[in-house]
Amino acid sequence: MLKGIAASSGVVVAKAYKLVQPVLNISRRSVDVEPELLKFEEALVKTRNDIQTIKEKAVGRLSDDDLAIFDAHLMVTQDPEFTGQMIEMIKAEGINAEFACQEVSGMFIHMFESMEDAYFRERAADIKDVSYRLSCHIMGYELANLSLIQEEVVIVAHDLTPSDTAQLNKAFTKGFATAIGGRTSHSAIMARSLEIPAVVGIAGLLDHVNHGDVIVLDALDGIVLINPSEDELKHYKAKADRYADLKNSLKVLKDADSVTLDGHHVELVGNIGNPVDADKVLENGGEGVGLYRTEFLYMDAQALPSEEDQFVAYKSVLEKMGSRPTVVRTLDIGGDKELSYLPFPHEMNPFLGYRAIRLCLDRTDIFKTQVRALLRSSVFGKLCIMFPMIATLDEFRTAKKFVKDTEAELLAEGHAVSKDYQLGMMVEIPAAAILADQFAKEADFLSIGTNDLIQYSMAADRMNEKVSYLYQPYNPSLLRLIKLTIDGGHKEGKWVGMCGEMAGEEMAAPLLLGLGLDEFSMSASSILQSRKMIRSLKYSEMKEMADKALNMSNEAEVVALVKKTLKLD
Q1: What is the predicted pLDDT for the residue at 462?
Q2: What is the signed CA dihedral for 351, 372, 522, 464, rounded to 10 degrees?
Q3: For the residues 165-183, what does the mean pLDDT come to?
Q4: Residue 481 has what pLDDT?
Q5: How far is C-alpha 505 from the geometric centre of its chain's CA atoms?
Q6: 170 in helix, strand or coil?
Q7: Where are the domains of the chain?
Q8: In the CATH scheme, what is the code of domain 33-139?
């Protein structure tokens, strides 16, 4: 039995298709420059054609959001910062194209992989996918075509690129398992879109599986079983049937209220990165958008997006959501998220430095463009503007005044602005959590960002393996900060949400419910399961459990309490 990360739910049994792609042994060679440049340009054209063909074949099988991945890949091949550096390296150093490709792409991959945010770390996969395909074409290798599979299989691979995943035919590909990857990788995201079970991050996978082995893929518990016994087959087939029944039962909850057994109502909303993601939120019964990460507009562009480009994106989401709230986070760049076209100062500790609202209040030209676009879009739905990384009341007041001044300018120009939009803030710095009652006097809402709040509270970088044990979302100290925030907001009659990863976790939801959280923002695919859980709980009992948790001494005790209360063992 092998253990990995359950990335796309389901339980299937099928033969293993062991995917073996060309192994590229690249070394530096001196070359004749002009023929090498010609070879590079021909390989680049082939790469672009491949990507376009894969995208066209995937139309109708993948969502628009997933198809947009290939637009991003095409942009990579057209990015002068990417391919241009390769060409310059070939010219300046007289070296082989595949080596130049390896060196330049390696630099970009390292930049993304070093980012703290999981989403951006996984974007390194885009660069790897494009650069690997480009290198194969330069060196004359053929790539495997998964669309040609004509029997039911579980694909086993070191990794699956977005290009690989887009070729999968659901009729024959029953699931896949990979040695690396996480829940936020493109292959995992696309697997969920296709509803293909997937288990990723299985160390040593390829050493244990042979082509043609019978594979049990349990993508509920992250288990891969090789050549199972009859009893094991019977067990997992029964588990697959139970899961199918569960999926059907969840569908009926799409339009149901998110209300506990004793009548306590909460809101379950979705996190999105672009307008297309909003469709998934609605499809899964989301009651709004709790976090619109606008930095993706900037990360996916070659220059600062214009007011009009931003307006179109915000308007699209607000129109889709209608009367449902849409919480839009203003530009959250800096720290681990950089822009190639916007230089940042070198800092000893960028996570504690020039980022998010601090950048926006300094670069008011950038901030004003976004605020104008947001305010113009406000008439098309229920807009909530949220400032990230607020540390002091003065910061919030300055940002709020900036928005109000911009509103006055727009009205003077003849633009319409909603009278009902809200201005709130993220609580992700301990100082803000402690002073939440004071912030709530001036903010319309508070939203807790647990990813940063945890690491700032514990003084531990969760990406540092040496201190990762300190990333403890259930530590009583963090729960107390969350409670302070919720109570502070409620004292002033303001709603309090959470848009960090914690909001969608099965273990965390009962605790957060008991602590009094009003809004839970999570990935769209988690909404219906969370609704099922909320509807099975009593608020009074969860409140009692949460009160006990606040007075415990460590995370292990809290986890044990939740498991005991919910009978999860």
Answers
A1: 60
A2: -10
A3: 84
A4: 97
A5: 14
A6: coil
A7: 2-21+145-228, 33-139
A8: 1.10.274.10
Question: What would the mean pLDDT of 374-380 be, rounded to a whole number?
Answer: 98
Closest CA to 387 of 478, 374, 529: 374
Q: How far apart are CA 290 and CA 466, in angstroms?
A: 33
Residue type, 391: A
Task: State mean pLDDT over 349-364.
Answer: 87
Q: Catalytic positions, please? A: 186, 499
- Of the candidates 498, 415, 380, 485, the residue with the CA atom closest to the CA atom of residue 450: 498
pLDDT at 536: 94
CA distance 502 to 152: 36
| Per-residue tokens: 251 | 């569908």
Contact 115, 337 (CB under 8 A): yes
User: Is the pLDDT at 271 greater than 80, yes or no?
Assistant: yes
**Residue 488, pLDDT score:** 98
86 vs 568, which has greater pLDDT? 86
Pairwise CA distance, residues 449 & 387, whole Å: 11
Strand pairing class (445-448; 422-427): parallel
Could you tell me the two tokens for 102?
């390896």
Q: With residue 489 as reference, give the H or E element that holds it.
A: helix 476-491
Q: What does the mean pLDDT of the chain come to?
A: 89
In 3D, which of 199, 197, 109, 219 has the Cα closest to residue 157? 199
| Six token digits for residue 199 | 């288990």
DSSP secondary structure code for residue 351 in this structure: G
- Cα separation values, 465 from 67, 329, 348, Å: 34, 29, 20
Whether residue 155 has pLDDT greater than 90: yes
Condensed to tens digits (0 to 9), the pLDDT of residues 531-550 reads 999 999 999 999 999 999 99
- Per residue in 442-464, pLDDT (tens digit) is 999 999 998 889 889 999 876 56
Q: Is 67 exposed, middle or buried (0-12, 13-18, 19+ CB in 10 A)?
A: buried
The DSSP bridge pattern shows strands 267-272 and 325-329 to be: unpaired
341: CB partners within 8 A, 6+ apart? 302, 303, 304
pTM: 0.70
**Do 298 and 333 contact (CB within 8 A), yes or no?**
yes
The one-letter amino acid code at 448 reads I
Query: Which of 549, 481, 484, 485 has the alpha carbon at shortest distance from 514?
Result: 549
The C-alpha atoms of residue 353 and residue 73 are separated, in whole angstroms, by 31
Q: Are 498 and 522 in contact (CB under 8 A)?
A: no
- The CA–CA distances, whole Å, from 277 to 321, 356, 367, 377, 516 equal 11, 23, 24, 18, 28
Sign of CA dihedral 455, 488, 531, 420: negative
Q: What are phi and psi of 334, to 5 degrees?
A: 115, 170
| pLDDT at 300 exceeding the cut of 80 | no
Decide the pairing of beta strands 223-226 and 214-218. antiparallel
Class of the domain covering 2-21+145-228 = alpha beta
Strand order in the sheet with 5-8: 2-3, 223-226, 214-218, 11-18, 153-157, 173-178, 198-200, 5-8
Q: Which residue has the higher pLDDT, 9 or 327?
A: 327
pLDDT tens per residue, range 33-91? 999 999 999 999 999 988 888 888 777 666 666 677 788 888 888 888 889 999 999 99
Q: How would you write 285-317 as a 3-class SS string?
A: CCCCEEEEECHHHHHCCCCCCCHHHHHHHHHHH
